């Protein structure tokens, strides 16, 4: 089943390929003169492995931003004696003339070049070296492959000049490509004579002329005994075209669909045209007429539609001409036509916009070569996922992931796809998704954030990340996620909603993770970024979620991480703390977050002298009386002072306030707290509290520490009793009970 398929681990072949590509130098290759990759001399690889290496390489360069492409990668496959290639798929700017040139000695059977805009006429010449073996060739979207640099001796008569001073090659044909059966020339540049180009081909089986305008297609009849598949997507049709198509009696797949938004279009599909196809093309199993305007005479009057169970039997077809089919079609493309909403459609698979099944079929059929159609289909899926419930969730997710990977630079697909992902990954679908699938979602979301500074994409991507358990599910991309979020937060002009979500994510990412993670994120500029956000909010005199989350994130990232605490002090963190306290005296959450953070700073012995000023000590002392957020603000202020007191009277380098006076206020504060208070705090370790127990220099610090432990283990025994035992708290408490300097009430509590 689909569920199991998406859950199964990658094959060993896939894992090895991936590993070798990421570590070419340590596996298949060595570096010559520190720059050129060379294959080890004892390596011999068959085409099954080489094809996979090349195709995966292209995939990695396209979809994995961390993967570094190699200038000389294709030269590894230059000698068929050690590496054999047979079927390769190359895409976009990843491939250049010299790459094809490097593999020209290979006996390629299948070569797909999709949207390779960097290829020029040099590559046409290279194609000739594959002419004796090539069976299948695609030049889809290779818009410059028929251009060459203008020859210096002036332009000959037989060439057109295009603006970049390149000239169109007029004399290339498929002469000598004796085995070529399958050819895709989609989006071929204007000015190339298709008929002349193709004439030498003896027996074509499949031809794709998407997006090419040809007034005369009579030459197609030269393959009427061999052509089984013909694609004329977005070609302006006329009666002449229809007559020619009707003669191609061997056709099994015919696609005359169009993008109804692309241009004004005179041709209308009629009952007569469809009848002609059904009568003449008796082998037809797949037909695509998406985007066409239908004349209403194609449908059966609704009175006559046999109601009851939906049927795919041709005899019951709601589309009149299809009643003449011998058997249902395997595929019928009706996307953006009125016919897809009819009751009885004689096909096993229909692309359309009526329901989830039709929409998914459309995304599946059009993703590769028709992003303009796919983005509209994904938009329909977005509505289904948002308003109804998706019944084919895994299929939907996989199709959207594929579309986003395939069209990384297509804004429409990135916008609609990222929005659909948000709804497809939310909690109600959670149970149906494997770890592997959820990781794929995270990868494409991060790709989107990386390639697009566009507000909608950024917002959709950030929102989608909120559907995951953080930090656990993002752990495998931890560095990258943080870098991306920080770069969003460091942009000068910012969208409020994105800022809010990004700060929330940053906060969640540094909560409950190991210290080495926190240190790494600190080095990325996390502390500085948060302080800048706080500074901006202060200047606007606003205390909103961004302000609170930023302080909360600083509280989390400084937890037991001295380097980050030091950064906080070095970047004027204390100045901002005082200003926020003054500007927002009533904001309880804010006070709690700020003091939690200062508690972390106070735990670092080397940094405590920086807190030893009259101003700071007065502020902390006054906050002892705060009733903000229950006991939290008072508790944290007392914690900060407990660590300062622990350094002894000689460290008290100020005249005002007096040390004894502050100690008195600390005792009063602790005695005013309810010992059964439920807490808004989360300890991963008791170490900073436990170190205040075995000492006689500051009994009040000892008392604060004992109170803290007593409260936590009595209110949350399941969580904190094991922690206290694990970290060796019991013997420390026992020893303290025996200490003469400890106060009686502290000993009682310890007992």
Automatic annotation (TrEMBL):
<dbReference type="InterPro" id="IPR056845">
    <property type="entry name" value="LRR_Zer-1"/>
</dbReference>
<dbReference type="InterPro" id="IPR055142">
    <property type="entry name" value="ZER1-like_C"/>
</dbReference>
<keyword id="KW-0833">Ubl conjugation pathway</keyword>
<dbReference type="Pfam" id="PF22964">
    <property type="entry name" value="ZER1-like_2nd"/>
</dbReference>
<dbReference type="InterPro" id="IPR000225">
    <property type="entry name" value="Armadillo"/>
</dbReference>
<dbReference type="InterPro" id="IPR016024">
    <property type="entry name" value="ARM-type_fold"/>
</dbReference>
<dbReference type="GO" id="GO:0031462">
    <property type="term" value="C:Cul2-RING ubiquitin ligase complex"/>
</dbReference>
<comment type="similarity">
    <text>Belongs to the zyg-11 family.</text>
</comment>
<comment type="subunit">
    <text>Interacts with the ELOC-ELOB/Elongin BC complex. Part of an E3 ubiquitin ligase complex including ZER1, CUL2 and Elongin BC.</text>
</comment>
<dbReference type="Pfam" id="PF25013">
    <property type="entry name" value="LRR_Zer-1"/>
</dbReference>
<feature type="domain" description="Protein zer-1 homolog-like C-terminal">
    <location>
        <begin position="404"/>
        <end position="750"/>
    </location>
</feature>
<protein>
    <recommendedName>
        <fullName>Protein zer-1 homolog</fullName>
    </recommendedName>
</protein>
<feature type="domain" description="Zer-1-like leucine-rich repeats region">
    <location>
        <begin position="196"/>
        <end position="337"/>
    </location>
</feature>
<dbReference type="InterPro" id="IPR032675">
    <property type="entry name" value="LRR_dom_sf"/>
</dbReference>
<keyword id="KW-0433">Leucine-rich repeat</keyword>
<dbReference type="InterPro" id="IPR051341">
    <property type="entry name" value="Zyg-11_UBL_adapter"/>
</dbReference>
<keyword id="KW-0677">Repeat</keyword>
<keyword id="KW-0007">Acetylation</keyword>
<dbReference type="InterPro" id="IPR011989">
    <property type="entry name" value="ARM-like"/>
</dbReference>
């Amino acid at each position: 089943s689909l569920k199991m398929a998406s859950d199964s681990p990658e094959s060993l072949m896939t894992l090895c390929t991936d590993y070798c590509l990421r570590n070419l130098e340590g596996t298949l290759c060595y570096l010559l003169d520190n720059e050129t990759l060379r294959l080890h001399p004892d390596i011999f690889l068959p085409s099954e492995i080489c094809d996979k290496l090349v195709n995966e390489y292209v995939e990695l360069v396209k979809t994995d931003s961390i993967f570094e492409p190699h200038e000389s990668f294709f030269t590894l496959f230059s000698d068929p004696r050690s590496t054999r290639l047979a079927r390769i798929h190359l895409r976009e700017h990843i491939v250049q003339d010299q790459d094809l040139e490097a593999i020209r000695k290979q006996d390629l059977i299948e070569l797909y070049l999709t949207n390779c805009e960097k290829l020029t006429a040099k590559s046409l010449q290279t194609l000739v070296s594959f002419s004796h073996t090539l069976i299948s060739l695609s030049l889809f979207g290779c818009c410059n492959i028929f251009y060459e640099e203008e020859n210096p001796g002036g332009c000959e008569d037989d060439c057109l000049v295009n603006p970049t001073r390149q000239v169109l090659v007029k004399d290339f044909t498929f002469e000598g490509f004796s085995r070529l059966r399958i050819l895709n020339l989609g989006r071929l540049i204007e000015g190339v004579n298709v008929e002349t180009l193709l004439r030498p081909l003896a027996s074509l089986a499949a031809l794709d002329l998407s997006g090419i305008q040809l007034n005369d297609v009579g030459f197609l009849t030269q393959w009427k005994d061999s052509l089984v598949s013909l694609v004329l997507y977005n070609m302006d049709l006329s009666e002449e075209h229809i007559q020619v198509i009707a003669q191609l009696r061997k056709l099994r797949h015919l696609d005359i669909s169009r993008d109804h938004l692309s241009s004004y279009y005179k041709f209308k599909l009629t009952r007569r045209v469809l009848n002609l196809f059904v009568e003449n093309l008796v082998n037809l199993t797949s037909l695509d007429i998406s985007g066409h305007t239908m004349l209403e005479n194609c449908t059966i009057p609704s009175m006559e539609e046999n109601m009851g169970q939906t049927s795919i039997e041709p005899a019951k077809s709601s589309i009149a001409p299809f009643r003449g089919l011998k058997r249902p079609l395997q595929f019928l493309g009706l996307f953006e036509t009125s016919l897809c909403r009819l009751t009885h459609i004689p096909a096993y698979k229909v692309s359309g916009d009526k329901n989830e099944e039709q929409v998914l079929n459309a995304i599946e059929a059009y993703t590769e070569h028709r992003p303009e159609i796919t983005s509209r289909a994904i938009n329909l899926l977005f509505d289904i996922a948002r308003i109804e419930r998706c019944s084919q969730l895994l299929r939907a997710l996989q199709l959207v992931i594929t579309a986003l990977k395939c069209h990384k630079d297509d804004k429409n697909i990135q916008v609609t796809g990222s929005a659909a992902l948000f709804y497809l990954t939310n909690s109600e679908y959670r149970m149906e998704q494997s770890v592997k699938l959820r990781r794929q979602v995270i990868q494409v979301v991060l790709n989107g954030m990386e390639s697009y500074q566009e507000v909608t994409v950024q917002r959709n991507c950030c929102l989608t990340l909120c559907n995951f358990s953080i930090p656990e599910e993002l752990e495998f991309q931890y560095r990258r996620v943080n870098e991306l979020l920080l770069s969003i937060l460091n942009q000068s002009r910012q969208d409020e909603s994105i800022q809010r979500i990004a700060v929330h994510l940053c906060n969640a990412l540094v909560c409950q993770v190991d210290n080495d993670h926190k240190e790494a994120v600190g080095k990325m500029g996390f502390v500085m970024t948060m302080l800048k956000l706080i500074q901006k909010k202060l200047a606007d005199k606003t205390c909103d979620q961004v302000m609170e989350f930023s302080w909360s994130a600083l509280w989390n990232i400084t937890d037991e991480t001295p380097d980050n605490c030091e950064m906080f002090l070095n970047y004027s963190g204390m100045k901002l703390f005082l200003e926020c306290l003054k500007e927002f005296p009533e904001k309880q959450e804010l006070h709690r977050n700020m003091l939690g953070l200062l508690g972390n700073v106070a735990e670092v012995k080397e940094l405590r002298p920086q807190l030893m000023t009259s101003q700071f000590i007065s502020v902390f002392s006054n906050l002892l009386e705060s009733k903000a957020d229950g006991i939290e603000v008072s508790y944290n202020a007392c914690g900060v002072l407990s660590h300062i007191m622990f350094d002894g009277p000689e460290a008290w380098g100020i005249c005002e306030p007096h040390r004894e006076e502050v100690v008195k206020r600390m005792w009063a504060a602790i005695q005013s707290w309810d010992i059964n208070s439920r807490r808004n705090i989360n300890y991963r370790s008791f170490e900073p509290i436990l170190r205040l127990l075995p000492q006689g220099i500051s009994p009040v610090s000892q008392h604060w520490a004992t109170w803290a432990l007593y409260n936590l283990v009595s209110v949350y025994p399941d969580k904190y009793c094991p922690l206290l035992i694990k970290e060796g708290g019991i013997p420390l408490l026992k020893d303290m009970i025996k200490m003469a300097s400890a106060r009686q009430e502290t000993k009682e509590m310890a007992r």
